[in-house]
Amino acid sequence: MISVEHDLSRSSSVIYTISGLVVAALAWSYFSFLDVNAVASGKIQPAGRTKVIQPMAAGKVSALHVANGDHVNEGDVLVELDSTKAVAAQTAIVADLVASRAEIRDATPRSRRHGPNM
Fold first, then answer.
1. Contacts of 85 (CB under 8 A, 6+ apart)
2. 108 pLDDT band (50/70/90 cuts)?
3. In which element (H, E) is residue 63 found?
4. What CA–CA distance (Å, rounded) separates 26 from 21?
């Protein structure tokens, strides 16, 4: 036969375990940082006409300079995209260009580079 004391000890250990898990989950949710990335297309719909706004190149938003209800003028910066990927692509293209120019320079005969009198 199971004693009452054993039942209380088992139920209290279950309650302590569940409480510990809840406290751990709350602590994790408070101290952790979730990087949220969302990819979506859409429309910004003003009171009058509708304009479709889309980037020339997709990217991660690094700064948003407007809020709902703000008045904007032509030429105002609304959103800044993270330039990390664009800078990396530009660096790779420049490196390819330098390498291609070096290959062309090395493939060109010396007499053509300096003229026939050299």
1. 59
2. confident
3. strand 61-64
4. 9
Q: For the chain, what's the residue count?
A: 118
Contact 78, 72 (CB under 8 A): yes
- Token digits for 5? 């004391």
Residue partners of 106: CB distance under 8 A and separation at least 6: none
- The CA-based angle 30-23-12, given to 5 degrees, is 175
**Distance between CA 40 and CA 54 in Å, rounded?**
10
For position 2, what pLDDT does the model report? Answer: 53
pTM, whole model, 2 decimals? 0.36
